[in-house]
Write a structure and sequence with these properties.
This protein is an alpha+beta fold and 219 residues long. The protein is built from five helices and seven strands; from the N terminus they run ααβββββββααα. Helix 1 packs antiparallel against helix 2. The chain is flat.
Length: 219
Amino acid sequence: MTFLIQTSAVLLLLVMSSVLLILPVIICKNITMLVVVSILYYPALGFGLYRFILYQKTVRNREVKKIIVDDKGVHYERKNGTTDHILYQDLEKYNLADEYDVDLSPRNKIYVLKVKHNDSVINVDFDGVDAGYSSYIINLKALRRRYIQGIVYFRPDLRINPSVYTTYNINPVDFTFDKKEYWTVFAKTLAILILLGSILGCIMLGLAKWLSKDQIYLH
């Protein structure tokens, strides 16, 4: 997975760089316009690449190289040598009847754990890809299950939204991966997609027949 990510990223970067370099040649109609555009374009491109490299350097220093979940909580070891912690003992209750202490927060079409930690609402991230797309954490689901299990064991006073278990396909009894629930949802989703595809296919086929009849009548 890491090799595929790195290869894809390099190929994409090469394609984008090539397009950016020859863009003035593509859009300019004559030599005069090409010279004028190049004088303005390439210095701006160089400055943009310089800022991008600085940003990537900063981001990569903050990349998480290892995630550890133990009896204390979750620990994020970063490439710059620092370690961030979200400990069970620092999690707090909302003290609201209609608010769960451990819930889900939508982000980029996925759901991440949301908790109250040291007077702030934060997301407990188990992202599988680092910011530089140089590695992939293959056991992130197991890490997430282990962290939720730790909340149940070490912080039984916190209320967990039941949707956390269903969203992540976790068996709330033994905290194993609920394969039955996962494949049930997968089968339902696949059936809906096949049904929608069949309906769309029938509509397109009927439209094609109707248009072909109109062509016959016109002749």
